[in-house]
Amino acid sequence: MSMDIDIALTVNGERIAERVEARKSLVDFVRDDLGLTGSHVGCEHGVCGACTMRVDGVIVRGCLMLAAQCDGAVVETIEGLSDSGELADLQAAFEQRNALQCGFCTPGMLTAAQDLLNRGSVPSRDEIREHISGNFCRCTGYHAIVDAVESVAKARHGAKP
Predict the structure, then answer these.
(1) How far apart are CA 67 and CA 119, in angstroms?
(2) Does residue 161 lie in a domain region?
(3) Which end of the chain has less neighbouring CB within 10 Å, N or C?
């Protein structure tokens, strides 16, 4: 017997009111009910980072959070971060540095990288690696990703990339 719950939240700036199954994950809600398929479902155990998104300004694993927990919250997916232009320089750097290949990890990786860059400093390469360590990439070997994040951090602070 499933139990449905009414929730109201803001997703990428749009107010949403929906009825959801109590056990539905946030990533499944966003993908299946709202049609926002940028956040991917990978391991479904919070390990791979493919489902990374922001809830009330904090990055979370969408597979570990229930949609019902987001009642009253502000949720930002990769679509919202991209559409707002917040990631434009980071997306360009990922492309220029060949930091994306198959693209499966890219939305979660960009969201995690932006979270680090939002802190306002120029992180070291080790700090970048540490911050994105919860996001698996099977294609790039991470070097290009770290290069891209580092170049954007430096550029945002007026340093030479």
Answers:
(1) 27
(2) no
(3) N
CA angle centred on 156, ends 14 and 88, rounded to 5°:
40
The 10s digit of each residue's pLDDT in 118-139 is 998 899 999 999 999 999 998 8
- Computed on alpha carbons and rounded to an integer, the radius of gyration of the chain in Å comes to 16
Q: Strand (E) positions, the chain?
A: 4-11, 14-21, 52-55, 58-61, 74-76
Is the four-CA dihedral 81, 86, 88, 91 of positive or negative sign?
negative
* 57, 81, 105 - which closes a domain: 81
Structural domain of residue 53, as residue ranges? Answer: 4-81
Give the predicted TM-score (pTM) of the model. Answer: 0.93
Same domain, residue pair 40 and 102? no
Angle at 129 between CA 76 and CA 121, to 5 degrees: 70
